[in-house]
Amino acid sequence: MAKLEINSAAEMQKLGAALAKTAEPHDLLLLTGDLGAGKTTMTQGLGRALGIRRPVKSPTFTIVREYREGKLPLFHMDFYRLENDDLSSIDLNGYLAEPGLVVIEWPQLVMTDLPDAYLKLKISRIDDSWNSTKREVELIAQGSRNEQWVQAALTEMNK
Question: 127 φ, ψ to 5°?
Fold first, then answer.
């Protein structure tokens, strides 16, 4: 596990870019944190670094947004509004089988349906003021590939 202090939206996007530059097909990135913690901001940096030109938006109301035009396909999911943990309308296994990057916000609602290997980012506000951009990000790797991903991303962040 590694911890980072993030002091701005730009730094959160830089973390996303570092993760994108070191991502491989079939990587699974789980994002946890309160509403407004920076999950979508981080994913925007990730998308930009993958070469996705259209805006990366929160999939809160659509559940899944697909971006296939980048260096890797990006499947951005948000299960915050998933009703009764019902995944029947989403082919989660199909997305996980594709050679892309799957990013899931609010994964705690579907953990039993996910593989054992993943990288989880736990994003927490450092102070309580709503407009503060200071965050602590814990990078929690499950599996050797994801441990390597963390190290590669941290190296990329420090360039």
Answer: -125, 170
Give the pLDDT score at 133. 76
Q: What does the block give as tokens for 6?
A: 């993030």
What is the strand order of the sheet 101-105 is part of? Answer: 2-6, 135-142, 118-125, 27-32, 101-105, 74-78, 64-67
The DSSP bridge partners found for residue 136 are 5, 124
Q: Which tokens is 41 given? A: 């901001």
Q: Which mean pLDDT values do the consecutive 10-residue runs of the chain (159 residues) have?
A: 92 96 97 90 95 85 86 92 68 93 92 93 82 87 97 93
Q: How many CB atoms lie within 10 A of CB 7?
A: 12
Q: Cα–Cα distance between 146 and 15 in angstroms, integer?
A: 15
C-alpha 102/C-alpha 23 separation (Å) is 10
- Per domain, the residue ranges of the chain are 2-154
H-run or E-run covering 145: helix 144-157
Reply yes or no on domain 2-154 having CATH 3.40.50.300: yes
Q: How far is CA 11 from CA 46, 60, 98, in A?
A: 12, 23, 29
Q: What is the pTM of this model?
A: 0.92
